[in-house]
Each structure stands twice: as structure tokens, then as C-alpha cells.
Description:
- This protein is α/β, with parallel strands linked by helices.
- The protein contains nine helices and 20 strands.
- It has helices at residues 7-21, 26-39, 195-203, 243-257, 287-295, 299-306, 354-367, 386-394, 419-433; strands spanning 43-44, 57-63, 67-73, 83-88, 93-104, 107-115, 128-137, 143-149, 183-186, 215-224, 229-231, 237-240, 265-270, 310-314, 317-318, 341-343, 372-374, 397-402, 404-405, 413-416.
- The longest helix is centred in the N-terminal third of the chain and has 15 residues, at 7-21.
- It is globular.
- The two termini are 27 Å apart.
Amino acid sequence: MIDSEDVSLKDFNRGLINFLNSSPTPYHAAANIEDILIRAGFQKLDETAEWDKPLSGRNYCVRDGSAIAAFNLPENYSGKGLKIIAAHTDSPSLKLRPCFVVEKMKYGMLSVEVYGSPVLSTWIDRSLGIAGRITYSDADYTIGSILVDSESPVAVIPGLAVHLERDSVAKKEINLQKDINPLVFDAISSPEWGERELYNFLMSPFDISPDACTGLSNDLYLYDTEPALITGINSSLINGPRIDNLAGCYVAAMSLAGADPALPVMSLFTDHEEVGSVSLKGADGDFPYSIIRRIFDDYENYASSIRDALLISIDSAHAVHPAFPDVHDTGHSPVLNGGPVIKYNSRIKYISSDVTRLMFQSACSRAGVPVQYFSARNDIPCGSTVGPIISSALGIRGIDIGIPSLSMHSIRETTGVMDTYWLLKGIDSMISQY
Length: 434
């Protein structure tokens, strides 16, 4: 199927790659999701205002710029049969500290913190951009925010030449404090450069001068400026940044945008999954419950309906590595372009049960989509997802699924051209079938 001339497959992957490339931060990912929803006829609700009851139609709300809840509810919705698709907008990265420019040995460096669990070696000697949110106050101390993106390489984390370190490079441990500070300028050619100048550079497209602001703050990320692309001798692979979990976000947004108006479907896009989800916009905060509870007229309707609902948690799955097949369990070694992966764990790191596994398997069979399985080896701990957090908090059954990928948490990850497309088809079939 990799050589298929299916126009919809080509269009889907073109859209996916554009989404990856235009979403360097959770804020940009949320803005792009919002754009997909608006084009599909969704109306924005203010979370601080009262919502009309009964709630119906296509609506969404945004919390703090990087988390979104969107829902497609039929007229006179009874509360039964709700499908909730969940994904997270954040990816492992490096984030700038509040005071972010330091000078060392006549070099201007950025002071950064590690966000999540990135494979730090893959960030060294890469062309890095800076993007995120800048918040400012004007002369009247009114606070506003803008999304910024350097759009071009402005930083690099230089590695140490092998000649200067005789120990094997493979054995070198990266010091989280000393070894990951990006170089942004040299003080010889740019003696006046500093934080104010970087703010000015990022804010210049908005005609907002830092000098005219009474205060500045930031939530900025470094990102790989090399775009995502289709690769492989037969164009069968997608290689790019933030596939975990922006590919899941894209599927959740596209599935909801294309959902039948008669079907009750909701998509949740939470932030901060990579650092534990405990925040006002994370899955382990009140965001999922608060939004879902507002859909229903009263608590009894909510309590009875949520037990009838289904949570579909999307996150990346580990494809078997050709050089390291032994780190996978026999029979649970997904391959690229082998189809979406059902993730299972007896310690409930994933929420897939025997019932929900069969439901998704049946839905995929109906749609002509192959299915793979992942269950971690007993001696290798697996990660987790937003699935168990939301499932336990709401008391909702669910399934954890994802696309097989290589190099998870690297600055660039790899998946197959068929896998995300098949995941969308499988989810669409599950929503309409059950």
C-alpha cells in the first residue's frame, strides 16, 4: 500500500507534515488545532462565561493557550455514547529560563532547563530556533501575549571536539547544567547583545518594542529548524520533530473535524504530559473533568453517561529497532507501516482492556486497517500516557493506541507514511461503530 496513488493519503501526509513544521511549541500546536476546528465550523466558547444548556453543536474552548477541549454534540443529546479522543500538545524539549542570557568566555549563551526527557545527545550541533509565548505589559500595565517564532536557526549547542576529550564519545555523560547551553552570539562581534535584543528580535514582526513595555516575561522553547519530511528509498517514511505526540494531536483534530454531526465526539488536547500532567492544563488537573462535566445538565446525567462513554488515548508507540530487537517482547514488536498499535500493560500504565482491545481491533478490521500490539518486556519499564490519568479520574473505560515510531524523544523521530493515516481510519471506524 506504500505505492498507492490514493490522493487522500497524499493529502493527509502533506497536512500532517505541515502541522509538524508549523507547531514548534504547544502554543503553536494549539493555534493550529484551533484553525482546523474553525474551518470545520466549530465555535469558540469562553471558559469564564456561563454556557447555554443543553449544549449542542460544534464548540471548543482554549485554556491558557496550549490546551483545547472541543466537542461535536447532536441536538437534544441524551449524554450516552460519548467518545473522547485524547492527545497531548507538548513534546520533550529545552526551555529558556526567565533570565535566559548569560555570557561565558566572550560568548552569549542561553540558560535553559530540560523539559521532559529528551535524548539530549540529539540536540547537540543542531540548528535550533526559538519559539513560544512572550507576555508583556504596556504603558497602562495592561497584559498581552503574542506567539513568536524565530523561523530560522538562531542557536546551536556546540559539542566538544573528540580531540579534546580522549574518552569514548559514546561513553560521555551529558551534564544537564554545563553541556546544553546554546550559543546565540559572540560578544566580540555583538558586544551590545543581550536579553533585550533577543526580545526585540522575536517581537519585531508585531511592531511591539520591548523598550515601550513596562514588563516582559516568556515561555520559550528551543526547536529543530530542519523541517519534517518524507524519506526512504520508496518514500515510505516520515522523519521529523515532535511526532510524539503531534501526530496524535493531528489525528484527534482531523477525526473530530470530520465527525458526523449526529455522533457525540469530543477531543481533548492537554499540555504538560511530558512532565507529569499535573497543571491547570494537564490531564492530571481539573481540565478534563471541568469541561466534560459542563456538557451535562446535572450530575446524575453525567455520572450515568460517563460510564457509557469511551476514552481513546493516543500517544506514540515503540517500533522495534532493527539493531535492537531484543528490547521488545516476542509478538509485541510493531514495525513501521504495519498499522496502529494497541498498547497494553498489566500495571495499567496503559488503559487498554480485553473489551476495548477487541472493539478497536474490530473497528480496524471493518475499515481494512491492520493492527499491531505493544506490551513491554517484564524487565524493561514502559512509559505511560494521559489515558490512565483521565480514565481513573472520570471512571471511564478506554484504550491506549498510537503509531509505531523509532527514536522516541529524539529531536527527530521516524514513523511510516501509512501509520498515522491508518490510525485516523481506525478511530473514525470505532467512533461510528460503537
